[in-house]
Amino acid sequence: MKIKRSLSILLVVMMLITVVAGCSKNDAGNSTDGKVTLTFGLWDKYQEPIMRELADMYEAKNENIKIDIQLTPYGQYWTKLETAATGEVLPDIFWINGPNIVKYAANDMLVPLDELVESNNIDLSVYPEGLIDLYTVEGKLYGIPKDWDLTALWYNKKLFDEKGVEYPNENWTWDDMVEAARKLTDKEKGIYGIASRPDTQEGIYDTIPQAGGYIISEDRKTSGYDTKEALEGTKIWIDLLEEGLSPTLEEQADTNAIELFKGEKVAMVYAASWNVPVFMENEIIKDHIDLTVMPLIKERAATIHGLSNAIAANSKHKDEAWDFVKFLGSKEANEVWAKSGAVIPAHKEVLDIWESSYPDINLKAFVDELDYAVMYPVSMNTSKWNDVETEYIKQMWNRGITVEEGLKKIAELMNEALTKEQ
Amino acid sequence: MKANTDIKNNQNNKALKASGKRKLNDLFWGYLLILPTVLGLAVFYIAAFFQNLYYSFTNLGAFGKYKWVGMENYINVFSDPKVPQALINTVKFTVISVPISIIISLFIATLLNSKIKGLSLYRTLYFLPAVTMPAAIAMMWKWLYNGQYGLLNQLLAKVGIEGQAWIADPKFAMGALIVVGIWSSLGMKIIYFLAGLQGIPKAYYEAATIDGAGPIRQFFSITLPSLTPTIFFVMITSLIGALQMFDLIFLMISKTSLAVDSTMSIVYLFYKYAFEFQEKGYASAISIVLFMIILVITAIQLKLQKKWVNY
Amino acid sequence: MKEISSNKKRMQINKIIIHLLLILGAIITIIPFVWMILTSFKTLGESTIIPPTIFPKQMQWENYKEAMRTLPYGKFYFNTIVYTMLTTIGQIVFCSMAGYAFARIDFKGKNFIFVLILSVLMVPGQIFLIPQFMIMKKLGLLNSITALVLPGLFSAYGTFLMRQFYMGIPKELEEAARLDGCNHFTIFWKIMTPLVKPGIAALAITACLYCWNSLMWPLIVNTSIDKMTLSAGLSTLSGQHGTNFPVAMAGTVLAVWPMIVLFAIFQKHFVEGMASTGSKS
């Protein structure tokens, strides 16, 4: 008994020692065989295989480079990145998005790319202008665009046919859409014409600029929510709710507009381009849906967002990292993205390949919207006022407060947050 | 070996000297046995705790940069309207879920401690929620609660009750979360109680049976008093756990839901400020306020335990 | 004779009542599990139709293949087992030592240290993330199993739990041992610890669950997916714009079953010898 016990203790101690000794040497970074390992941080499980493919392509051409892809789910990505940044061990290259770019760039966490772009003769005009603007902070560029997304008007042809309504087209105005929604709404069947979404990028971020307004001023110092245009761009959504053409906020609470569209409970929906695979892999709707550009309000506009590849300021291999980022921005690499159909590649010259990834639907609508795309609104501490937006959008959509009150409140609190940033 | 002879000597020596030596001996063994834990906790937790206390007086933002701001954060905590709201929600959750879950799990544990067939199957079934990841629990319950598709509303419809959007409606959301909170914590509590029940000497029951005490009297006169150290542990830890509830809201209530305000807990608020808004200094102050509240409650419990816990 | 038979009858009725109560409770407990398993066999479309189908129209084993294909479950299991074993053993050893000292030895500063340890439980766990990460970085341990395991070896919760169990042991035992000339270590190791075996079992389960459920720490100290634990790896299934529920549920089922099997085996072991304590009536 005693021997058995001592043995088991010994075993435990040995195991602990082995693990402590054995695993601590696993430090990634410079390998012994002269290869440089570049770490690459991203968050999307479904894009990871494509990223791996690109990394393999690059590794084949550059034998001294090894690319180590680090996947962290979106829910934990920013916390992890921030922890890594505090410890100065950010991945050499990583995905960054609009809401976080200013924070990382202004805190000197990223390598400015302008000089590198210039000395390498990179043509930035192949990328959407709105994206280059988005990733330019205080006059310096901090990321090479990887992909972009825009919102379009999606519709269910079956529901249109049932009511004998003509399909939406690129010349539609907002009023045309409302008119169609009236005909499509069928209370008895529980079907609504359109979903009025309490959303930003798939909602007011588009309609406010379309009404001639803006969300944040160009110097990122003042809110645009207290303008007449913002009121118009928001009110039109609330009108849809008031007329009963859209599911109420409560009805969208458990099952959001995207789910309702997939379940054929709404005939039209404003949905961003990341929904393309979501919709097209849904057996119920994939054969009878299509899309077109968002209807005209006063002017054409669409808020563009996209991801960039950024290089960490703490990287020990900045030159190698830049070379890989350059490769990822090339037409060749963008072609791989285009063929995958997973996202809309940033490089303009490969868009036709992407358009044909689902030949049955009018993906060209997204490309058409590029012509009038406007920058996604961000600032230093974007999430602070994003929270304000969410809070009051919810209340306006629930019609607990009027649109006027809601927007005034957003503008007030957003301006307060923006002043604090200075 | 040395300690052994020490004790032997003690018995022969004068009482005073003996007690002095014993004290020294106790001191030595006490510190030796707690050394690894204290050292480990000090390095990985207690140091961070004091660092957090320090940060609560700074404007710590993203990436570890900060300036000293004195009491400003604390003044803000007490003027922030979100704090009392979150406090009320947290207290509501705690006050309802803790007693109910303790009573239910104690009851089930007692049943599971009886001599019937199929015990191992029952125990495994009741253990199931404990092994499920919070994310999976949230996913399942979101399904069940779903206003349109949910099984709960389906069942209610069968008996003619109109369903609700349980976790989307501010009126019901907290109740719905409490149910999940109780449900998911039962498994572990039952295990603690089962473990505690085994420490009760059989002789107590044998004696009671001879005295003619029935099962219910035995429960109140033997089981319950003997189980008080375990009940005390479960009570303190579940109070602390409930006052720190976070996972459930984070996973079950979507940010665009109307029910956010009526379910927002203190730790959720802390999380939002620390990791979303990059106001870590302020978040630290919130966490210190919460710490004070829990400390006071625990201190009261520790004092009161002498009245009812039998060691 | 008659009295005995009526007594037996009463016991029989008692047993039936106990069974009924337990079955009712068990049903309520397992409904979400059953739902999870059923959903894991549905197509994405079927999982969202109104009204929901209870049984899948066709068993979609595809979901399991998909979940297996997208994630390296084998590695996840391995990492989780190593992580869990080391943590559990560490906690059992350290927590019972400290728990014994806090419960049964009188020494100066004990109460203060104990409250200090408890205070670790009273702040949100998230505050420890960044400081712990910085320590690991300074030690050069990032991206290692050591870093994953180290902070979890010490547990304030476990120390408290073990203290309570050591507290519950009658004083007479200790006094008798002291008179026999045992030192603290012998009392602790030979006399007391065998008596708190149920407590140790409960601690072991708690430690296992802690490892099983921890998400943020594995994701933060590890950078490669090959070093992820189960729940951390599983979390990568949820995307930025919505989650494929049936596949995620399939992934969850795959992740949870070993734990359930383990418990089913061990629960017998850890409740052995107690079966009759409660109802010797």
Automatic annotation (TrEMBL), chain B:
Main location: membrane
TM spans (from-to): 27-50, 93-112, 124-144, 172-195, 219-242, 248-270, 282-302
Gene3D superfamilies to which the protein is assigned, alphabetical: MetI-like
Pfam family, one: BPD_transp_1
Keyword Cytoplasm attached: no
GO cellular component: plasma membrane
Protein's cellular compartments: Cell membrane
Domain ABC transmembrane type-1: 87-301
InterPro entries, alphabetized: ABC_transporter_permease, MetI-like, MetI-like_sf
Keywords attached to this entry: Cell membrane, Membrane, Transmembrane, Transmembrane helix, Transport
Membrane-topology annotation of the record: Multi-pass membrane protein
Presence of keyword Membrane: yes
Biological process, per Gene Ontology: transmembrane transport
PANTHER family registered for this protein in UniProt: ABC TRANSPORTER PERMEASE PROTEIN, INNER MEMBRANE ABC TRANSPORTER PERMEASE PROTEIN YCJO
Entry's family note: Belongs to the binding-protein-dependent transport system permease family.
Protein name (Swiss-Prot/TrEMBL): Sugar ABC transporter permease
Organism: Tissierella pigra
Automatic annotation (TrEMBL), chain C:
Assigned keywords, A-Z: Cell membrane, Membrane, Transmembrane, Transmembrane helix, Transport
PROSITE patterns: ABC_TM1
Keyword presence, Cell membrane: yes
Main location: membrane
Matching InterPro entries: MetI-like, MetI-like_sf
SUPFAM superfamilies: MetI-like
Pfam families (alphabetical): BPD_transp_1 (PF00528)
BP GO terms, sorted: transmembrane transport
GO terms under cellular component: plasma membrane
Location relative to the cell: Cell membrane
Gene3D superfamilies: MetI-like
Residue ranges of domain ABC transmembrane type-1 in the record: 77-266
Superkingdom per UniProt: Bacteria
Transmembrane feature ranges: 16-38, 76-100, 112-135, 141-162, 200-225, 245-266
Entry keyword Iron-sulfur: no
Record's bilayer topology term: Multi-pass membrane protein
Family (UniProt): Belongs to the binding-protein-dependent transport system permease family.
Protein name per its UniProtKB record: Carbohydrate ABC transporter permease
Organism: Tissierella pigra
